[in-house]
Design brief:
There is one protein chain. The chain has 108 residues and is α+β, with helices and mostly antiparallel strands. The chain folds into two domains: 46 residues, no CATH class; 37 residues. The protein is built from four helices and four strands. Strands 1-2 form a two-stranded antiparallel ribbon. A two-stranded antiparallel ribbon has the order 3-4. Strand 1 and strand 2 form a beta hairpin. The radius of gyration is 33 Å and the shape is elongated.
């Protein structure tokens, strides 16, 4: 196994290497490497990771946004449906206001 001590940068032959890219296994100088998600990686491998994944493409994003809106709408509709069902389950004396006019201390 080669150590960083005796290696030179892959891009700059006159500079000593300070890190080894875990993806391509090449040695690089300070200028050629960067830290990404707590891993020291070269620019070429970072560019591979930076490509736009499928779920971020515009067509898929539009479908995703529409599904999120539909799920949110149905969630709110169901929430208000449950609130309405709970209000309908209350006794009529509560709705008429007569429940609050009863003197509870006289009944004891």
């Amino acid at each position: 196994m080669q150590t960083v001590l005796h290696q030179r940068c892959f891009n700059h032959a006159h500079r000593e290497a300070v890190a080894r890219c875990p993806e391509c296994q090449r040695f690089f100088c300070r200028e050629c490497v960067t830290e990404h998600e707590d891993v020291v990686i070269c620019a070429a491998c970072l560019a591979k990771h930076a490509r736009v994944p499928l779920f971020r493409r515009p067509a898929f994003a539009r479908i995703k946004r529409t599904l999120q809106f539909a799920c949110g709408f149905f969630f709110l509709w169901f929430f208000f449906y449950l609130i309405g069902a709970a209000l309908l389950a209350l006794p009529t004396s509560f709705h008429e206001g007569t429940l609050w006019q009863v003197d509870w201390f006289d009944k004891l």
